[in-house]
Amino acid sequence: MVQKAEKIWFDGELVNWDDAQVHVLTHTLHYGAGVFEGIRAYATVDGKSAVFRLREHVVRLFDSAKILGLTIPFTVEEIHDAILETLKVNGLKEGYIRPLVFIGDGAMGVHPGSNPIRVCIATWPWGAYLGEEALEKGIRVKTSSFNRHHVNVMMTKSKACGNYVNSILAKVEAVKDGYDEALMLDTSGFVSEATGENIFIVKDNIIKTTPLTSVLPGITRASLMKVARDLGYEVVEQLFTRDELYIADEAFFCGTAAEVTPICEVDNRVIGEGKRGPVGTLLQKEYFNAVKGGNDKYKGWLDYYEI
Ligand SMILES: Cc1[nH+]cc(COP(=O)(O)O)c(CN[C@@H](CCC(=O)O)C(=O)O)c1O
């Protein structure tokens, strides 16, 4: 259950958490054409708090909306500032931030007509997405019976609400079968991503990730590619197959919620030593150092605020 905060920013106003309600004929509730973001704020080493790559996330929210043809009735700056305001009014030194843009109620039917475009921003404390142990011990993964979207069926560069029915089907199937997460292949059979994360594999110290074909352009993915290259690693964006993953030395998922989560097993095949490997350990350490303001090189990725 989400731990409630006091206020939610809703269409430009801060309202009480329980008052942030919509009508059951809200268009996006029925047809899924809405977009959202997942962003994290962290307590930093110098006592302040900071949101990680806030601007990139807000820009992606606007890009997602543009792809779906939704016009957000606020500017990037207004949403950027509203996110910081919502964190502060809720006294959250660290936590998860969920902006959502959706089509309100009015006309029904597939065409959204002139229904209003609404925006809300919720914030709440959210620990390790896949469990505290997962960050260290890694997780067990199953290749899903569901493919990731064909790139001309759902718009995969848009973090669109409706895209996540695909994620839900895969995640529920994997968990019911006793696994922690689902790995999804694209419609050509190459590895795509997980239900809420991008994926990296490591082989002979070369780090590989899926190109931006069927996947969400993850901000954690981009950050880890930069950090890995700064550490001197070769990082390639290249399609790879599930059996290349099976014989990798290491593999890990990444995302705002999942942070950097090692994969210890896929389809009952142990990956590498079956635990967090040296490269994953280093990147996870550097990632957490960066988000908490411990590395001057990446302080430009932080929007600081104080409670
Ligand atoms: C499909 C998908 N792929 C990759 C990522 C990683 O993107 P980024 O966060 O920019 O590095 C996410 C984020 N998933 C968000 C939603 C999780 C949820 O369960 O809700 C998140 O990590 O916040 C995805 O949903």
Automatic annotation (TrEMBL):
Family: Belongs to the class-IV pyridoxal-phosphate-dependent aminotransferase family.
Transmembrane segments: none
InterPro entries: Aminotrans_IV (IPR001544), Aminotrans_IV_CS (IPR018300), Aminotransferase-like (IPR036038), B_amino_transI (IPR005785), BCAT-like_C (IPR043132), BCAT-like_N (IPR043131), BCAT_family (IPR033939), Class-IV_PLP-Dep_Aminotrnsfr (IPR050571)
GO molecular function: L-isoleucine-2-oxoglutarate transaminase activity; L-leucine-2-oxoglutarate transaminase activity; L-valine-2-oxoglutarate transaminase activity
KW Transferase (keyword) present: yes
Cofactor: pyridoxal 5'-phosphate
EC number: 2.6.1.42
Taxonomic classification: Bacteria, Pseudomonadati, Thermodesulfobacteriota, Desulfovibrionia, Desulfovibrionales
Pathway this chain belongs to: Amino-acid biosynthesis; L-leucine biosynthesis; L-leucine from 3-methyl-2-oxobutanoate: step 4/4; Amino-acid biosynthesis; L-valine biosynthesis; L-valine from pyruvate: step 4/4; Amino-acid biosynthesis; L-isoleucine biosynthesis; L-isoleucine from 2-oxobutanoate: step 4/4
Keywords: Amino-acid biosynthesis, Aminotransferase, Branched-chain amino acid biosynthesis, Pyridoxal phosphate, Transferase
Protein name: Branched-chain-amino-acid aminotransferase
Reaction equations catalysed: L-isoleucine + 2-oxoglutarate = (S)-3-methyl-2-oxopentanoate + L-glutamate; L-leucine + 2-oxoglutarate = 4-methyl-2-oxopentanoate + L-glutamate; L-valine + 2-oxoglutarate = 3-methyl-2-oxobutanoate + L-glutamate
Protein function: Acts on leucine, isoleucine and valine.
Signal peptide: none
BP GO annotations: isoleucine biosynthetic process; L-leucine biosynthetic process; L-valine biosynthetic process
Naturally occurring in which organism (per UniProt): Maridesulfovibrio salexigens (strain ATCC 14822 / DSM 2638 / NCIMB 8403 / VKM B-1763) (Desulfovibrio salexigens)
GO cellular component: cytosol
